[in-house]
Amino acid sequence: MSQQSGYSPSFKRPSEIMRMRRKRARSEAGVFSSTSGQASTGSPGQSGSSPACVRPFSPGPLFNSQGRSGGGIKRRNPFANIENTYSPKKKLLIYNEEGNAEAADSYKNKSTEKEGEDDKSTKTECHGVLSFSASLTEAEKQERHDASSRCLTFSEDDSLFEEEEGDVTSPLLKSPQAIAPASIAPPVCTEYPADWSLKTRLLFTSPLSLSWAEQPKAQEEALGLSQHCRAQFSTLPHSLQDPRSCSELRCAFQQSLVYWQHPSLPWLSLFPRINAERSFTGKSTPWAQDTSLQQSLMSEWSVSLSSLYSLLKARLCPYFYLCSYQFTVLFKAAGLSGSSTITALISPTTRGLREAMKAEGIEFSLPLVEERKKSMDQQNQGEEEKEEEEEEERADECSELKEGVDCRGGDEEENGDEDSDFSWLKEMGIQDKIKKPDSITIQLRKEGHTVSLDHKPESVVCVEGSHTFTLINFLINCKSLVAAAGSQAGLPPTLLAPIAFRGATMHTLKARSVNVKSQVGSTYQNISSLEITGPILPSSLHAITTLLRPSQKGNFSATLYTHAPTAVMNMHTKQQCPGSSVDLSGCGLHPASIQQLQQSSSLGKTALTHINMKNYSYTWRN
């Protein structure tokens, strides 16, 4: 029997197939016009609007619609066949010569019954289906038989088959999202590491409005200041619907902006003090030429410093900063940063200051220098081990070749050459004219590396334990602590603390909220920003971010501007005991802030620059 029209058992080029189809559509349009009605009504998967000359897959016959020509009609993929559309759990529909749909199994049985009558014709018609079914195992045939309640029909949308009844359970036809394992949610980080550096500016941004943080009512401001002085803290819900109408939130925000400072001069900004000559230039400094006024200022300053240290020792003050025109000192109470004793960090320092501290009997360490020495010693040790291994290998080679004596002799000759390097000076008679380096020069060379540390982060000094009390006395009596000339002449260092102390003045950070538009892709989105300026202490930063979490529904970001000389104060100290527990409940800070500051520092000699919270989870950069 001649091959059925539209049947292409072998692979052909796309251009060839399309050319043959256009030719058959024009020449055989009249042949199939008589059977097009039966095909449209007898096929359950073929709709009345089915385009002409379309097949569900390559081995099937063409479909023709009544009164429609095949030219210019959108056609199906000509390369779709049984092999790339078959699913073992789906029952396929095979269309016979009359246009009726039959299951693949019944089609096979009918083909077997007709084999005796017209063997050649049946084999030609069922060649694709029988060859595919013969490769199936008995288990797969049984599985196909069990899934007979489901059938796929050809539709005119983008898919080749669609399911008529029942749910698709085959993993072969499920979407990748359905069969992929459930993605593991990223871990939620509810806290960022403690940053002991002083900040000069904070810039918060959030998609939600931050206007609630400015212009507090008089009652809210008074209540916030009172809560700060009494160390009372309010508990806020996990999420706030309307932060602007929440009086407790606004009071707590005013409470988080408070800090204490000495001395306090309204016409001068006393922070920062390092490289701040411009801010003092042109301002009134009546103490610059008045010795008695300078002594009065220093006397009051000494009382305030002694008060702060007494509070620190009694664990009623968690920490405080001393900011001079040359360096900054951070005093931390026992129990903070994992340390079991009072700790003081001074940065940056000079060789003269370190020598003066040694003369006063203050024991201190240079942690970053010691770390560098340890790393260099480890490298040198590794190099020495390599050299020893090489020497052992050489000795083994010499012993194997029985030339050990010659090898030792070669070494002695090399040493002799080194000893006689300057023998030519004696021959010339000028050895006495060579000036030998004196002891001072030798000492300067030895201390050259220590002098090179001056005014650098590596010059940070750590004082621990009882030596911090000696350091307080040293700072009170140190004449170089106050500038003798310049715009800051005669002005004592600035003391900053999160709690009240003797002679201190209460100050608040400045907050300003602005709504801006930010370009995201091709559109602009409204973004609210909150700018906070002033000497921002570590506890203030934590308190502000804790309040932004519920008010902004866990979505905000912050840019942090660090006072550069204090960035190194996040370094590790010697006596860090993470397991040590010291009661700091009476220090006047929020319990969450105390818990954060008690953790060992993990930032090293760097400081945080960005904090981002998304879906109540923190990420940060340093």
From TrEMBL:
Keywords: Developmental protein, Nucleus
Signal peptide start and end residues: none
Location (main, coarse): nucleus
Localization of this protein: Nucleus
GO BP: nuclear DNA replication
UniProt superkingdom: Eukaryota
GO cellular component, one term: nucleus
Coiled-coil boundaries: none
Region (Disordered): 1-82, 101-124, 373-421
Bias kind Basic and acidic residues: ranges: 105-124, 396-410
Residue ranges with Acidic residues bias: 382-395, 411-421
Source organism (scientific name): Lates calcarifer
Segments of skewed composition (Low complexity): 33-52
Family of this protein: Belongs to the DONSON family.
Name used for this protein in its record: Protein downstream neighbor of son homolog
